[in-house]
Request: fold
Amino acid sequence: EGKIDKHILRRGRNRKTGVSWVGIFLWLGTKLYWEFWWDKMSPSSRPAKKAKADGGGQKPTLKSSANECIYIKCCRSQKDFYSDSEELWYKPKFVNQIVENEEIHGYEDLKVTIYFASNSVMYFLRIVFSKKERGATDIDAALAPHIGMALCKTEEEFLKVCEKPFIPTIRDPICSYSQFRIYKVPLDSARPLTEDGTTIKEYHRRIQFHALVNIDGASYIDEADPKWEIYIIFEAAKGSPNYHFIGYATMYPFLGLKNSSLKEGFLERIRISQVLVLPQYQSKGHGSKLLEALYKECLVRKCLEITIEDPSESFRVLRDSQDLQNCIEQKILREVPPPGRPVQKSEIEVVRDKTRITANQVVRCYEMNMLRNIEADDEINKRKLRLMVKRRLYVQMADVLGTFAPEAKKIKLAELYDDLEQEYLTVLRVLNKRGIPCAYLGA
Reply:
């Protein structure tokens, strides 16, 4: 009887706490099932699951470079989705704003493919790996703030988007060349950008992801500010009612006083913030066409000055080559600039009045043009130009150079000039390819 009573007591305890061996086995089996199959499923087919912040207290040991394992693929059609052509792919240059230290933890043989439709810029995400550790980086969550608003849930949905006609409702481009069109779209416009009802803000949210991963230090603009203007390059597909995204730029106008006299009133100073051409379409003249269109737009509005916000090295070459070409074609630089004589204020103002570029940029154009007209073996004029530029650099960087000892100061100035000369020669080579002669290059 004592044994029976104890058995009954144990059964009573089980009923009171709701614990049974069958329940324990069911719970354990379900948990093991999901832990095994979750890692094998593609992100698009996974059911909703709450992410664990700490991975159960475990730190993953595997590590991948995000720059090496993330691929971005442009799809102009369903055929491109399955194509292995390298022309459709590009690797992001900067992912530090997506994952910390540009590293993805907890995966082996990881490959993250971000597909985007070149017309609507809708996305599809595919993540492939051979092994996943507990506490691995949540890649879906990391990308969600950037492409989540335009992410297709299934491959079938994305393929349909690729073939869906995409036509801008804005009929008058500010610039056309070949089959390409550049459209101005104010960010605050309530007008839909396309016939399917996609708004300008929605489309801009999709395309700005490419600026983030291609431009160092890029950041998203404040879309609540109605002053922002977007300029988009589309390619009108031949024989198809479809437009494909090529690149874009953002501009921001603000008021500036022309001079100290209030009689002159206020005029716009326009800042070009971001200029992007997708990697697949770079080195094909789209960047210079876009910048040229922006310049013309600024001149039509009779702005006071055109500035560039923190230009990257590649964009600085684009800007310098476009500015110098404009100055040469308009014949507003001195015909035969004497090397060694500093650029006069009156000469700077003549160029600024015609182009609206900054005074510092005018000086760069003059120095590049002086170098362009010097023969490569003309050591006398090369030395005159070098000394002139060094004097300018010394004044411009007096605060920094003042901390150097005399001999170190000479060495630093020489380094600064050599670096600047290489920048100028890069620009002259670009212009030479465009058919503009350059004595220094022997062409």
Summary: The CA atoms of residues 166 and 242 lie 5 Å apart. The mean pLDDT is 85.
